[in-house]
Amino acid sequence: MKSIRIFKILVLLVLVTMLSACTIDLPTIDFPAINLPDEININLNNISDAQGFFGNKVQVEESFEKTISVDELVELEVITGLGEVTVRSSSDSEVNLNITINVGAENEEEAKKLLNKILEDPPIKVNGSTIILGNLEKYNLPEKHSVGISFDIVTPFETTLISNTGLGDILIENIKGPINLNTGLGSIVVDDVQ
Asked: What are the boundaries of each domain within the chain?
C-alpha cells in the first residue's frame, strides 16, 4: 500500500515535470490581485514536515537503539518509503542501529496505536549475517496513515549494502561494499567506499 502511494507521488512529479516543458497558448484572463508572501518554504528534510505535507494531521515519533552481533561479512538491506539512511563503519563485530519511527494519522490515538504496534515488533529481520531493515508489509498499514523510518547504522567495514528510499537522503561512509543505492527523491552521498 505504501509503495503504491509513493509510486503515485513519483508519477505525479514526473507528469508535472513533463508538463512544465510544454507550451500551451491559452487566452488571457484577468484575475483579481491576491497578496501572496514573497517566499513559501516547504522543508521536506524533516520527516514530520514531509508527512504533514502529504496530508496527515498528527505525527508521533520515537527512536530506539538495537545492537546485533555478527561473526562474518554483513549483508545489509535497508528499505524506507520516507526517511533517511546513514551507514558508517566501525571495527566492532556488531551492527548498531539507531532507528527513528515517525507515524502520521488523523488523530493522536491512531498514530500512537500504530507506532506502538511497530515498536512491539520492529521491521528488523536477522538471518545469520543478513539483516533486512524497514520492510513494513507485515503491518498491513491503512493508506490514510504514513510511516517514515530513518536509520543511523554503524556496521563492520566489510558490509554489502542495498538501500532504497522513496523520499529521503542516503549517506554512506567508509564501508567496503559492494553497495547498491536508490532514492526516488533525495540525495545520495558516498564517501570512502572501496
From this structure: 2-191
